[in-house]
Every structure is written in C-alpha cells, then in structure tokens.
DUF3631 domain-containing protein (Kitasatospora setae), 404 residues
Amino acid sequence: MSDQPLSESIAGEEPATVGSETANLPSSTAVPDMPESPGAVLLTEVHTHIRRYAVLPSAEALDAVTLWAAATHLQAVWHHAPRLAIVAPARRCGKSRLLDVLVETVHDPLITVNTSAAAIYRTISDRPRTLLVDEVDTIFGNPRTAEKFEDIRGLLNAGHQRNRPVTRAVGNDHQAREFETFAMAALAGIGDLPDTIMDRSIVIRMRRRADGEVVAPLRDRRDGVLLRETRAKLSLWAGQVAEQAQVLEPDMPVEDRAADTWEPLIAVADLAGGSWPRRARQACVRMVAAEEVIEEDSCGGARILADVRRIFFAHGDPETLPTTALLASLNDDPEAPWAEHGRGGLTARALSGLLKDYQISSANIRLPDGTQRKGYTFNKFADSWRRYCPKVHPLPPRAPATDA
C-alpha cells in the first residue's frame, strides 16, 4: 500500500466483517443488525485504522481489538478490566506494530518494555491509565527469572477486577500503603503468558504476514495525527454514553471468567449498535471456544484429564484401568507431550502428581483375571471429566462413585 494519506487510501473501502452466519450462537444472543449510529461509525473508523497497519489472524480478532481499544475509554464504569494478550510463536509477527497503533487510540496510554511492579503501582489511580507492555516474554518467558516478577503477575491478576488493591510497605518508616491495581492492559510477547493471565485475557494469536498480505508503514508525523484524532472522538463518545454504560447488563453468550472478561467489549458493541452487537458476540463465542481447545490440547492444565478420557474411551470405558496401561498409552502417543515428560517419559509418580489437584488418586484394583494391581477407576475421573473436558467424549450412564 502506498504512503498516501489515510483519508484518501480508504475512500470507498468496505470494512472487513465476519460472516453473517449466527448458527453457532445461542438464539438469545443472535442480535439483528441495527442502523449505523455515530458509535458504530466510530468503531468502523477504529477498525479501519487497525486493519491498515496490522494483519490480524481473523476477522473476529480484528473486531475484538477494535472493541477493546474503545472499551479502554470507559474504564471508569467497568467492573472488570480485560487484558489483551497479543502473543505469537516467533518474532516479526506484528505484535509491536499492533501495540503502536493501540498506543495512539486507547485511553491515556502508558507503554513500557521492562518495568517493575512498584513503578506500575504508582501509575495506577482511581482514574486508571491503559498499560501496554511489549516484549512481555522477557518478564515471564524464562522460568529461571520469572519468580522475581511474581509481583507483576499478581498485579495483572488482581487488576482484572475492581477493588482488588495491593498493600506494600513504603518509605523509610515502612508505612503500609494500599495501591490500586484496576487497569486495562495489553501485553505483547512471544509464547503464551502465564495461565492466570491468559484466563483473564482476550487472546490475539498473531502470525507472520503471508505473501499478498500488505500493511501500510506507520509514520507518526502523518498517521499519528489521524489516530490521535480518532482517540479524541472515542473519548468524546465515551463521555456521552458513560451513564448508559454504567447500568448496562448485556446478554452474554459465554459464562464465568470468560463473561467477566468479554463483558466490556460486548457492552461497547451494544452501545454502538449497527452490526457490532452481532459481530462482538460472534467474536466472543468463536475466540473463547478456540482458546478452550488450545488449553485442552496444551501440556498441563486439563490436558492430562482429556488424554486419560480418550484412553478409557478407546478401551470401551471399563470400570478400571491399570496404571501401566494408562502410562503405555500416554507415552506412546506421538502427538502428546508425555513421552518427553522425563528421561523415560511419564511415570506412575508423575501421573499421580498431575492428577493430585483434581483429587484423583490410584488404588488397588482387581482385574478380570482376578489379579490385583495399582490403577485408576472410571468413577474417580467422571466428575473432573464433566467439569474440565466435557467435549472430549460424552460420558456413558454410570453409577455414582463409592469409596471403599
């Protein structure tokens, strides 16, 4: 794309939108498009700016980033402050460029690369700034040094919800002082962030641009002015709808932590109107579902439960399976991480440790030939399977577990 002014280069362009299909959405959340309002036109302007300078992984991701940027201007009314996790598998995937665009469009930005928790505490008040942290993998990516950044992780976790201050001793007399933590934050880095932060984030998984995917260079002397004009419009619009936003309770297509995280974005879409309520809910449903699949397939978390469920299913859902049978199947799966869990693969002791948090333990079981061995019972897993990986294989009817 040429370096012509933005107002000239986008004339007549239609903004990229997600498809009109709403079959995957619950019927209660399939919101018909409304006529374009000033808020909807403004969101489309933000959407167009982001699309010009960065290639997002999907139309839903582009909509989500647009809504997140607009939501930062209403932080004073939200109960939750969603994080925007901009992650990629390698360098040169556009993470920093996306942050550059956000710096010019979000509310009162504070961008940093490597900072201390103490410095961040002192920048957050009852009128929070928007934190933008680049190269966050230098903070959390190295297990040897991650421990010294626990304060930052704690701040990012606590700041997801209003009224979760931290107390620190400050000054020569070490007086206890409370610091606010509530603030929206965008965090960009290589690789996933800690699970507790990812769980509080709108996750944008960036990729390197392919041939034919072109973006415009970002020049502050030219484009920065236009982006900051858009920020001023967002600030003005936010002031006009703030009272309405404070009492708005949008219908959410997801539940629990995901609903808390996405609610400000859905609310902004409902306030703007037009096609945005539908697009926001479609982005929410699809992106939350995609992260659930990634979490299920990742090492740790509920991955062990999902893989054990597959093994029980492959064996015809018997009442029991020996530990040796489970370990053989887990370590023989070439696409699973268990064979690399240690020098000899996953061991009985390591398996027990992975299942401990789910209150699942091995016991002496009797095999069909009458012999006894250490193993696991179907019923001990059933409750955790229903809670953590219900979509792997439906559970057959089974009598409740009874402890010997």
Observations:
- The CA atoms of residues 63 and 345 lie 42 Å apart.
- The longest strand covers residues 83-88.
- The beta strands are 83-88, 109-112, 130-133, 166-170, 175-179, 185-190, 201-205, 320-322, 363-366, 372-377.
- Confidence is low (pLDDT under 50) at residues 1-30.
